[in-house]
Known about the structure:
The complex is a heterodimer of chains A (197) and B (531). By secondary structure, chain A is an all-alpha fold. Chain A has helices at residues 2-57, 62-78, 93-115, 117-121, 123-158, 162-166, 181-196. The radius of gyration of chain A is 23 Å and the shape is elongated. The termini of chain A are far apart. Chain B has helices spanning 16-53, 55-62, 65-97, 108-124, 156-161, 164-180, 182-202, 214-257, 260-272, 282-285, 304-309, 315-322, 327-336, 362-367, 394-402, 441-450, 456-471, 473-481, 522-527; strands spanning 130-134, 141-146, 149-155, 348-352, 355-360, 376-379, 386-387, 406-410, 417-423, 426-431, 437-440, 495-498, 506-509, 515-518. In chain B, helix 3 crosses helix 7 (182-202), helix 6 (164-180) crosses helix 9 (260-272) and helix 9 runs antiparallel to helix 12. Chain B is elongated. Chain B starts with 15 loop residues before the first helix and ends with a helix. The A-B interface holds A 24, 28, 32, 35, 39, 123, 126-127, 130-131, 133-134, 137-138, 141-145, 147-149, 151-152, 176-179, 181-182 and B 1-3, 11, 13, 15, 108, 111-112, 115-116, 118-120, 122-125, 164, 256, 258, 335-336.
Amino acid sequence: MIFLGSAIVLTAVIMMVTYNGLVRSRNRVDNALSQIDVQLRRRLDLIPALVATVQGYCAHEKETLVAATEARRAALAATPTDVTAAQLAVLTPARLLAENALALAMPRLLALAESYPDLKADRHFLQLQEELVSTENRIAFARQFHNDTVLIYNTSVESFPVNFVASPLGFLSRPLFTAPLEASLAPRIQMGDTSAA
Amino acid sequence: MNTHDLGTGRNLRLTFREEQQRNRIRIILLIIPLAVFYAFSFTGVAFIAALVIHPMGLLPLLFSPHIISITIGISALVAVLHYLFAREVVMDRLHAGILVTPPDPFDAYHLRLMNIVDELSIAAGITPPELHVIPTTAANAFALEAGGARRVYVTEGAISLLSRDELQGVIAHVLAHLSTGDSETGTLMIALSNALGFLSAQSAPQRLATLQEPRSLLAALLLHAYAFIAIVLASSLSALISRNRKFLADAVAVEITRHPEALADALYRMQVLSRQRMTVACDELGIVCVVPPLYRVLDESSGLLASVISVHPPVHERIARLSRYPLDVVEQRLREAPPPTLPPPTRYFAHRDDVWQGPYSFSELATLAGLTPDTWVCAENARDVNLMAAAPWFQEWLRHRASAETSPRLCARCRGPLLYDYQAGVRLERCSACGGTQVSRTRLQKIILRSPRFTSNVRMLAGKHRRRTAADTAEIYSKLAGNDDVCPRCQVSMVRKYFAIGHSVVIDECPNCHLVYLDPGEIDNLLTKDM
């Protein structure tokens, strides 16, 4: 009787510890996810100032400027206004796609400095450039941190014997964010080649 | 994207709460040696006091169980007090001892640094620490942590001299120290050695020269010696911990930035370019710095003595470890990098059989027979004609030429790459640069054995050839005099000699493994001789 009782208590304790561990792990993943969201928003805030600065030096490079502005508009449209939205809904595929397009428009905007020495020497531009580099790093690091935490979380959710109880309790494994640049970059280069030929 | 387990062996990214829990355990681990230290200190002081006052009566009393347990109790209490004191005061005291300025928000370099700290805090999953700048030309950085306050210090030299990536590596190292709790341990270590230093300074002989009584002088000297030994012990204890922790912090830094080369570059530049006195407080801060602030031979050497006394592992060893990081980091970065754009292929003309032939593409040039390093070549549309050996792509040409079927060994004569070749069913190695042949003696004998016997006509021609070679005897003997060739197998000097008695063919042979080197054409020459 005592043996049975202690076994039940022990099982209960183990279950409690496991459950709490899963909750902690899941919260960390959510936190990492929201960090990506924060950094993406930071980039959106940065672009108008950058476009305005570049415009002052090379207003006739309309194509690049318009492309950057359009990409930002698309990304902004895909960004949920409700910050308290459910965590997984924060980064929808549509938003990620728009953000990728934006990420591709940015280097072109910065590359304009190579042909405009005045722009390259502009203190304000240099500062914005540094901010943009930093933001890109932040996004990459936030993504990296997110993937690391997801990996730990997924491992704990999918390991035996937790995997039997995890999904009924609502602990579903989370997707990793793969580096999206290559996928969207490849067709673009092809398009450029055919138009040039 | 997969995460890279870079040998740190554990998950180092913890939430603030988990870090606090872990810190509690470490604090206890720190207080215990502190208590032991104080116990020994008190016993030592009491021993000296007893010696001075009344050796016979008091010394036995000192080691009674009561006194020992009281000593232990008091020591534990003092250790806890010391820890609390260090927690509250040390940080501010150390901070006040360093000349610092807050980062200037109008300085582009400082802005960059602030950005880097924020970025890496995201990557490491910690709250951004307080940032301070030390206005000195030395390049170094460190972090202090006590009582929940975290401060990162970076020198102006590091901010100005290092590139963005390098600075990122250095800050990642510092943040790694913070997230693994080394900074807190290090800060308290500094506090401990400070207390000992105070003791040592108070009992310094020159200070006590005023003491007239021999007994008290003896007591002071003993105290001084004791403090000195304690300092050595404490610093060697921290060194044992710190050397490994530096390697660990490097590993964690790479895990954060995924960029080992940048940190390696930064370490190299910080070590070579500007390692100099940072502040007045630099000696005691050495434990927490990224690179040792002063050059000491001990820091740069390995071995037991160095690892006991020195706080820092040799920088070259850290660089070596960093450059050994798993290939997948490098490979991933290569995959992310844009493919290199190739210039349009150049075509070449080669002067062969007394005429200019071509144009050849580079790969054709590499496979073309009869080309040697002293062939004249000319690039298409180029104005100058060069010897192949003088062309900038000569090494590449050698590699291409050798890429077909290459021997792992190199030519004994010119260290060029060796191609496998077959003669009479025997494999031998032919140098793609000088055209010489390399083969073991047993195989050479097989070739000779298997080669067809010659007709009288061939013998006559060979005889002519032999007479001609006889005319070159003088040259052969001069060749015999100087011989620098080294066997590529055994690294032994090869011996120049005749292939056999009565033969005028000169070979180089390794006295150890009997590897034979033959000059171009000599193998055919050998086969036409009488056996």
